[in-house]
Amino acid sequence: MDIVEAGALGARAAVVEMRARGGRCRFTLYPMLHIADPACYAEVSARLAAHDLIVVEGVGRSRPTSLLTLGYRMVGRRSRLGLQV
Description:
It is a single chain. Strands 1-2 form a two-stranded antiparallel ribbon. The protein is globular, with a radius of gyration of 16 Å. Strand 3 and strand 4 (26-29) form a beta hairpin. With 85 residues, the protein is of the alpha+beta class. The protein has two helices and four strands; from the N terminus they run E-E-E-E-H-H.
């Protein structure tokens, strides 16, 4: 299964909901892009507001991490593109 797909028309991310048979507890996976249109992040924020608990993963602050993320941080600084990191 492709969780994130990038093509000529842009990128799409599949939201996956998992629930145990007969159980009330469910888990929803929201794969995130490093840089996107602000409306994308607003939509995800609205969806997350309906959840009881949010668990996130991220990267720490280190020189190797800074170098790995430099590309999309630079693109995000170009305000004319209207993108958000």
